[in-house]
Amino acid sequence: TTTAAAHRRAQLLAMGDDDDAVSSTGSTSASIGLTVTGQPRKRAPKQHVPDEKKDAKYWARRLRNNAAAARNRQLKREQNGAGLTRQQKLEEEKDALQMEVFQLNTELENLKTLLATKLREGPAAKPAASKRN
């Protein structure tokens, strides 16, 4: 995960040092442990808990924390998956729009050519009106 964190840090730095920098998954730099400047947040140093202090309260807290960490990791996995799905949909939409632009440009060129041809020919000869008497 160290390389993933470094990669994410580089992405955030490339986006700028915005407080409002939001990734494609909707997470902010604060939610991934980075400060506004893109530096990792400072954590308190780990403190060893001696075995004699590991009572039922300690283990209950550890179990709750482990469950919360697992839920958080699962949520991140789901958000990343949803982000990829959204990215794929946007790429498909972009491709469809590019195809439409290409078709419209082709139609425009055809119409320009047709107009130029009509202008070169000059006004079309009008058929003589028949006289009825």
What is the element layout, followed by pairings?
Layout: H1 2-15, H2 56-121
Summarize the structure.
The chain has 133 residues and is an all-alpha fold. The protein has two helices and no strands.
Report on this structure.
The protein is mainly α and 133 residues long. The protein is 60% helix and 0% strand. The chain is built from two helices and no strands. The relative contact order is 0.06. About 11% of the residues have low confidence.
Keywords:
about 60% helix; mainly alpha; about 130 residues
Describe the largest sheet: none
The general outline is rod-shaped
Structural class, from helix and strand content? mainly alpha
Beta strands, count: 0
Gyration radius (Cα, Å) is 32 Å
Helix content: 55-70%
Euclidean distance between termini CA atoms: 97 Å
Average pLDDT across residues?
79
Helix tally equals: 2
Task: Note the run of SSEs as H and E.
Answer: HH
List unreliable stretches of 5+ residues.
Answer: 17-30
